[in-house]
Sequence to fold (186 residues):
Amino acid sequence: MKQPTTSTLTLEQYHAFSKLLHWLMAILMIAMLAFGLLLGEVPQAWRGFAYGLHKSTGILILMLVAVRILWRLVKPAPAMPADFSTLVKYGAHGAHLTLYALMILMPLSGWWMSTVAGRSVEFYGLFTLPPLGDVDPEYKDYSKAVHTWIGYALIALISLHAGAALWHHFIRKDATLRRMLPHFNK
Ligand code: HEM
Ligand code: HEM
Fold:
């Protein structure tokens, strides 16, 4: 039988609701990044619908990240194992913090981009969000560049993050990935 590593023995798992939020948001974020990059390819007849869906789902992400941050205050993340080096611990915390920041900035920049272009932002046709500032066509290109570059930063960081999780699982063979999976067994 495989001998458990120190990490496997000491690691606590994430709360079930934290796991649900993590995977739901991971799917939404990855789908939205791909969707955003493909928006220009959508046939003209479907473009209005596609933009509306992209914008509404972006706002949904903003709401979910607020729930997630509040929930994290109630149920903090389980401690990292003692045998992780300080560099790995700080690196992981820094990456998670940056992911949270980008998950907020991404929808906010989209909302701002729509605002400066004078376009309304609806939430699945249920209600209209207030503008995030003034209409100002001078900022149209700039706001789009901000939205795009935050998107590229997210793609890079998510790749690093998922790669690190797989490295822990398959190379280091510790419980880092498993403690975020639905069925955790030490
Ligand atoms: C986490 C949420 C979001 C993600 C991951 C995301 C991602 C992206 C990406 C990757 C692009 C392509 C950029 C490019 O081709 O240069 C894009 C375009 C766009 N996004 Fe988002 N977005 C999000 C939220 C929003 C929100 C909330 C809005 C507006 C309320 C929005 C409005 C737009 C618009 C209008 C475009 C098209 C820009 C253009 O081609 O002129 N996005 N998005
Ligand atoms: C696609 C594959 C993904 C895998 C395999 C994965 C895996 C993991 C794992 C194993 C953890 C726990 C790390 C630990 O125990 O310290 C974690 C945490 C986290 N992940 Fe992911 N993840 C993925 C995608 C994403 C995406 C797309 C995002 C957001 C854009 C994201 C954001 C986060 C955040 C913010 C945390 C920290 C949670 C907290 O401590 O509050 N993940 N992820």
The chain has one domain: 6-180. The helical segments are 6-10, 16-38, 44-74, 86-116, 140-171. The two ends are 14 Å apart (CA to CA).
